[in-house]
Amino acid sequence: MDMSNFPFTIGDVARLCHLNISRENQTSEYIVCPFCGRKKMNLHYGKGLYHCPACDAGGSMLKLYAELRGFQGSKGEIVKEIKKELGIADNYCYRSARQSENAEVIVQPQVDFERMKRLDSVYRAFLNKLFLASVHKPYLYNRGLSDEDIERFGFKSMPLFGYKALCRELLQENICLENVGGFYLDEGEWTINLNPKMTGYMIPVYNYFGFIEGIQIRLDRPFGKTKYLWFSSNGLDHGTSTAAIPFYIKGNRKPDTLVITEGAFKAIIPNKIFGYSIIALPGVNNTREFEKLLPYIRQDYRQVLIAFDADLRVNENVAKAREKLRRMIYEYDIVCSTFEWDLSEGKGLDDFALHWQKNKADAGNERSDE
């Protein structure tokens, strides 16, 4: 939710709630948390939000007022009460994005479309020069993908040699590699930031607008707990980092609902089986790029459904990440709910989808045998 829509700030709310603030002219400040008593609460004056990592209290300035004043009511009623206390005329009207389907929704541009288009053209040209080795196909089949899926999403194996030759081919096609994640200059010659000792396959990451904005690498032999790497050239000559972009697939079922999960495969398989639009975070705590999309998501969808792994009942980190994400979505005035299933039905949303598909097929076979 854009807090700039209101005729008051979180600083005004803090003073009404008798909180001691002193740096309202700055972007944010830390104050004593009224919930736990530790000087850990951050008031963000620009966004109108608060958060205390010590007790995990957080939300919008409207929630802060309601919590500290014990006020129960709708957002509109909270706004009215705050304006009344501040002596602000009641002719200011807050309009939710959901209050009228015909209401104009103003989306503040937070994304660089020109850069997206450029990255998309470079990565598509690069991937078109690669192939998928036969050693990687069985793994993708086991994940539930068909040859058609593999072709559609553009999975390719990591090249093991000829990096500079590949770059020369791209340059001959007038493709600029400057500041594109994964490419850099080595002694004046363009090359690719890959290690031939690390084998794996590449997953093009399609962003919310349909562009390939990055590439993830699934390692054949993970090191430690690391299975995935971003194709990046951060810190190298004329290279750059690759943002942790959410993977998005538009569906044709329930067009008003967006499912949120984690990991590209957990988007591809359920989209194929259930038909829902799905966006997959690169990690449950990787929400920075996702938050930039929320104004667009609010415009395109009426509700979102968070479907993280089934082990969140025993994995405290996943449970906390889901709650943090839910609060973030709530701040943008989007209806948000969660979807859970039993761990026996699969860990990830993709496992659950395949389990559901198998049960449906088995039930059909039983009926045909009767």
Verbal overview:
With 370 residues, this protein is of the alpha+beta class. It folds into three domains: 84 residues, DNA Primase, Chain A (Alpha-Beta Complex), CATH 3.90.580.10; 118 residues, DNA primase, catalytic core, N-terminal domain (DNA primase DNAg catalytic core, N-terminal domain), CATH 3.90.980; 116 residues, Dna Topoisomerase Vi A Subunit, Chain: A, domain 2 (3-Layer(aba) Sandwich), CATH 3.40.1360. Helix content is 34%, strand content 19%. It has eleven helices and 15 strands. The strands form four sheets. It has a five-stranded mixed beta sheet with strand order 11-13-12-14-15, with helices on both faces. Strands 1-2-3-4 form a four-stranded antiparallel beta sheet. A hairpin with a 4-residue loop joins β3 and β4.
Give the arrangement of secondary structure elements:
Blueprint: H1 10-16, E1 28-31, E2 41-44, E3 49-52, E4 57-60, H2 61-69, H3 75-86, H4 113-127, H5 137-142, H6 147-153, E5 156-157, H7 163-172, E6 183-186, E7 189-192, E8 200-206, E9 212-223, E10 226-230, E11 247-249, E12 257-262, H8 265-274, E13 277-281, H9 288-300, E14 303-306, H10 316-331, E15 335-338, H11 349-369
Parallel strand pairs: 12-13, 12-14, 14-15
Antiparallel strand pairs: 1-2, 2-3, 3-4, 5-8, 6-7, 8-9, 9-10, 11-13
Helix pairs in contact: 1-2, 8-11
